[in-house]
Predict the structure.
Amino acid sequence: MKSLRRFFARVLNLGTTQAQDERLREEIEGHIALQTQENIRAGLSPVEARRQAMLKFGGVEGIKQEYRAKRGLPLVENFLQDVRFAIRGLRRTPGLTAFVAITLALGIGMTSATFSMVDALIFRPYPVPHPGNIVTLVSTTRDTPFDDFSYREYRDIRDKTTSYDGVIAYTDMEAVGFSAQPGATPQVRGGMMVSGNYFDALGVVPRLGRGFREDEDKVPGRDAVVVLGSDFWRHQFASDPSVVGRTVRLNGRDFTVIGVAPETFPGLLTFGHPDLYVPLAMAPVFSTNLQKNFFEDHDDRELNVKARLKPGTTLEQARSELAVIAKNFESEYANVSRGRGAAVYTQFQARTIEDENWKFGVVFVILALAVLLVACTNVAGLLLSRARARAREIAVRLALGAGRLRLIRLLLTESLILATLGGLAGVAIGYGVIEWFHSKESVVFMTDLPNAVPFHMDKRVLLACVALSVLCALLCGLAPALQSIRVDLVNALKSADVDIPGRKRLWGRNMLVVAQVAMSLMLLTASFLMARGFQHDMMEDSNFTKDHLLMTSFDPRLIQYNAGQTQQFYKLLAERMRGTPGVQSVALTQNVPLGQTDFDGVTFVPDAFQMPPDRANFSSMMDTVDEGYFETMGIPILRGRAFLASDSADAPRVAIVNMRFAKHFWPGGDAVGKRIRLDSSTGTPVEIVGVAETVKYQSTASPMDFVYMPLAQHPVARMVLMLRTGGDPRQLIPPVKDVVRSLDPNLPVLQTRAYEEFYLNQAVYAPRIAIDLVGSMGLVGLLLAVAGLYGLVAYNVIRRTREIGIRVALGAGRSDVLRLVMGKGLVLVGIGTGVGLAMGFAVERLMNSMLFDSGGVDILAYVVVVPTLLVVTMLAAYVPARRASRIAPTEALRYE
């Protein structure tokens, strides 16, 4: 207790240091005065009396220092003294201070902004209590490590496992027709079906009202209740607390609002923030697959499953238990579960396996760290040069008895202040970059659903900025501080500007310049490779016509259409649009190339195909289209035929595959006439009647096996109407709305736009965001490297001014001086270029493995980047070299 009181007393004394120092000085002076008077009475002269009194009293400054150490906190006081001294010193060099702060700000800002990407995509915990206990349960196959579960599978997992405190299920966010008043035209909102224990198991307490009860999730279609998302409640209902108990209409059905989710819980999705939560029991209103029975069919896999581990349960125990249940599925439901397993993933594993967007974030962070290193090397080079100018100051301090550790601490304090200024400015730059990302939301998400960029300047990113600032202080300040205390006292006291003795006095600066050039070359190469990679993907994808197309989406479930009404609506819609003036052809498709909704999959077994012993079937992406699709989209049918109106629901099942699919399973023959069986070797036979050109559907990165099913034989609810015209496709928007209004005035028209605009947005404008970001990093790295090389050559010119003057006086010409000064700079550029090429090759391999495969080394990238870097750096070295060649001998000989 006494120690604690003593500590707080010392802390309080920090605020009265000046007053206490004054009292101490007066007390010491009083003691010396009394002793002096005694010496005078003893017969000594006044001068001798004071001298003897001071000798008897002892070292005044030592006593003061001992007193301060006892009453205060010496480390804190010394640090505050260092801070005050460092601030005064930096104020005397405002240009250097500003340049260093801006340089570090660029590196810290870009790194913090890209860290916010990786944090949001991978590391940010779920917004629930104790998020580390939340795990993801997935169904697995030979072709995919991340698949959904059916409702029956979820129910068995929930009831038969003992490793969890709660197992929850939820669907993907889907479009929901919402109207706050009866009879109002529905608006499209984002809704999600969740299990009854969703909020309880996650530990989420609603802001208003309550969550779902488990009994509200047991009887299909009985309990029409809804919980509102916090943002939706704020914007749609103006934060009205009386919303609980109100009735709203969702997909044509009345629902009672029972609660509002808290503001701290935007959902478990990375990009989506659901507006509405409804129980799984309401699947008859919201289920996406009209051909399946959501509650009974084991192959109707629509559910994401998560669980909270019980305290003391290990991940391995949970995985073993789930593996046993998956084995039971395989034996009990062999037709639809053969070859399927199950896995338990942590948050990190789930996010890195399910979504590949994190790879862009990781590449961006690596490149941003390279920019930060370039900035740090640049600043370290400047501080090394500044240390030479402070040689006399350091020598004087050492001569007066200052310890070397004390001087290192002083110099590191200066670096810490510079890094703090850079960190503060870096936060502003990082915030600006994140806001720039948010300004691109309309480009990234061309959808009516509530999606948003999840990058934020939150506490985690701010802590990263602090850590980066401290790291920069050490990287930038440690080497200059260590070199500063190695001065030769004799030479330093004679001259105000002296080098550290030794043959290797410039090796540190030289290595910094080499590192700057190398990392700048790597950054420029990365930006050029990214642009070339996207260009390469785009050039490969020219297999269908994208212009003169209008796309309009519909989902009749939004107004409670059943399967028969849905099919009749699409039939009438297509017929009436074919008769509309200006329409050349009409098509219906479930998804468009590069669409933002997930494509369905189909499992199959090819007839007369020798299946591997370890698998029961294959899987492929699929799309549902009508007979006008291939003509309207301009996708050539290479063999066989397109779909016909005769491919009705009562006709034999048929399909069309792309050329990649055909070559994969029948490399030496014709796929037309061959058959595949759905799900298993005894499943429904489907004859392949055509082979279409391979186009890229999910992304421009790489094509894939693809199957087309006719709409009449595979009806779905959500479809996209594609209209081809000879003129501006947007002129067809009013006729489309008139036709829809004549069929049903309550049906919303979704995402009506020119398809070319949509395609360019997904294939060009969205990737350009990444290209712009990486290009900015490369440009910043190049500018910093140029500044570093310029500074080194200029420093060499100043250091060798006398030598240059002597050489000129002895007859050396300007070209000789240019060659002398530029020679070393070009050697460093050459070494940095060699190292940068090796780093560029490594980054290219990383990009090829993570983002896109450009097919080996892109020679053009290096042919463009390397000469550009050499020319720019040569100019940076030429400017100070040219100035050196004009030094007059008389001026140089008088230098220093």
Q: What stands out?
A: Residues 498-504 have pLDDT under 50 and may be disordered.
